[in-house]
Amino acid sequence: MTHRPTVAIHTLGCKLNQAESERLARELSLTGYGFKPGKAADIQIINTCTVTHIADRKSRHMVRMLRRHNPQAFIVVTGCYAESAYQDLLDCGADLVIGNRDKMSLPDMMASKIKGSLNSGHGWDTLSSAGRVRSFIKIQDGCNNFCSYCIVPYVRSNIFSLDANEVITEIRERVAARYGEVVLTGTEIGAYNDNSLKLSGLIQRILKETDIKRLHLSSLQPQGVSPQLLSLWKDSRLSRHFHLALQSGSDSVLKRMRRNYDTAQYKKTVDKILGIMPDASITTDIIAGFPGESDAEFLESYDFCKNAGFAAMHVFVYSARQGTLAAKMPGKVGEQLKKERSLQMMKLAAHSADEFAGHFIGQIRDVLWENETRRGSGIYAGLTDNYIRAYAKSGEDLTNKILKARLLDQAKEVKNLMLRASTRGNHGELWSEVLR
Predict the structure, then answer these.
(1) Boundary of a domain, candidates 337, 358, 379
(2) N or C: which end of the chain has fewer CB within 10 A?
(3) Which of 304, 329, 358 is the C-terminal boundary of a domain?
(4) What is the mean pLDDT of residues 368-396?
(5) How far apart are CA 365 and CA 168, in angstroms?
(6) Residues 164 and 210 grouped into a single domain
(7) If we measure between CA atoms, which residue out of 182, 254, 183, 259 comes closest to residue 224?
């Protein structure tokens, strides 16, 4: 009997990569490959990120680790780092390196290189029924903003928007596969444009033409949040969470970053959202130690973030990317000082997350429940409609159900219970009581 090749897909980086990995898994499943998560699969696919030097290092480490644990595996590397480090990845042990443009051609490329029995099947339902509740769908790709620090326009230069009919079809497939939430993602989804149909028009169609339980937007540029777009949140299926990348709370740093807004415009956008949805969560990205960032500029950034009351902050240490304008800028901030500033920002982020979540203690919110945190623990994790992570103990399976829950404080004994159940117990997370 001929061996049926098995595949494992490892995804590093952003939600866009997650969406592409998910689509790739679907195509490979329909082609006839079997899936075997972990290191033992015959074919190991790594979907890489290159947004920082740490992301580069993780990609190289994963190639070496998989080669060491499974010497006979056929290792395929794709994604953003594959665009800029072809030879390095081959030297690490990759058998095939493919950039973003050809990523979705992988099934055809592999067919000519991998021997085995492939029978066309319908494995997507099997993949989708393993307790997953959230699916990522790419609706747009590419960016030509060329922010001075960002490598993305160089590794995702092919700008396009997915046909709206195809987006609708994909979402209907996810509904049929029993997914509770779809996340629309892309390099810059606010730039979506399918024959003059913009993002707001696409969302209108999705809400009208599909039965998806919850729809979530991955990230928006602050200048792209219009009253027309916000008016769509009358539909409760839209997640009340907005990720608006700030990068710095200092206007002079934002100017050097070549971001197309200042702090006043950013605050205006936040106020516009909260004026309509006071309970919405606003999350952001912050870079610490950008070239030339003075003590005064860092303090401006810190104070802006402190006053903004973010529900979550993803803090990055500035990482020079070869070929970007910032890599050539004078005034490099020392590594130790970058680390110190990032730690200050992360402490602020933890405090802000706890403070935001604390406003909702005692409230009843809709929660989309995920899997048990540990098999047999009876403790489930989920996300509220405004994306607060909640935990609850239940004797029945809550997976993929949207149920009302009362949010409770993280008392010491509750935190200990969460830790025993192998949950993260991170800042901004609450215990809850599911209401029947």
Answers:
(1) 358
(2) N
(3) 358
(4) 92
(5) 28
(6) yes
(7) 259
Task: Report the DSSP beta bridge partners of residue 372.
Answer: 380
Cα–Cα distance measured from residue 102 to residue 77, given in angstroms and rounded to the nearest whole number: 11
Q: pTM for the full model?
A: 0.89
Q: Would you place residue 102 in the very low, low, confident or very high pLDDT band (cuts 50, 70, 90)?
A: confident
Q: The domain containing residue 400 runs over which residues?
A: 364-434
Q: What SS3 state is found at 389?
A: strand
% residues pLDDT > 70 (the chain): 91
Q: What are phi and psi of 71, to 5 degrees?
A: -60, -25
Pair 250, 146 in one domain: yes
Distance CA 31, CA 104 (A): 13
120 within some domain = no
Please indicate, yes or no, if residue 399 is contained in any of the structural domains: yes
Residues 100, 301: Cα–Cα separation, whole Å: 34
Where does residue 252 rank: exposed (0-12), middle (13-18), buried (19+ CB within 10 A)? middle
Quick: pLDDT tens for 124-170.
444 444 447 999 999 999 999 999 999 999 988 888 999 999 999 99
CA distance 326 to 312: 26
| 430: in domain | yes
Burial classification of residue 403, based on how many CB atoms lie within 10 Å of its CB (0-12 exposed, 13-18 middle, 19 or more buried): middle
How many C-beta neighbours within 10 Å does residue 148 have?
18
How far, in Å, CA of 103 to CA of 298, rounded?
39
The predicted-structure confidence for 21-40, as pLDDT tens digits, reads as follows 998 888 888 877 888 888 98
Query: Alpha-carbon distance 389 to 357, whole Å?
Result: 9
Domain tally for the chain? 3
- Distance from C-alpha of 95 to C-alpha of 77, rounded to nearest angstrom: 8
User: CA 346: distance to chain centroid?
Assistant: 19
Q: Is residue 216 located within the same domain as residue 303?
A: yes
The predicted structure's pLDDT at residue 411: 59
Average pLDDT, the chain: 90
